[in-house]
Amino acid sequence: MLAWHSGAEWFVGGIIAGEATRLSTGLGFLPPGNWVAEVYSDGADQKIAFSTRQVTSASVLDLPVAKHGGFTAHLRPAP
Prior knowledge:
By secondary structure, this protein is mainly beta. It has one domain (2-77): Immunoglobulin-like (Sandwich), CATH 2.60.40. The protein contains no helices and seven strands. A five-stranded antiparallel sheet has the order 1-2-7-4-5, with no helix packed on it. Strands 3-6 form a two-stranded antiparallel ribbon. A hairpin with a 5-residue loop joins strand 4 (35-42) and strand 5 (48-55).
């Protein structure tokens, strides 16, 4: 997994080569406050899955990852 930021926005991504699994990462790198996580991932049906969730720096992203798949999350301050 890898995380980087541009201004106040953060991006997290992960990819696997192998069987379906779960990937988890803490979000302690985020500044204090409420954040929106927009998550794009490879679905089991070989289509892109999209979800949105509220997170904070105390949250953990725990995501299912399809076989030979990956995900990306765009984190931005909540309005």
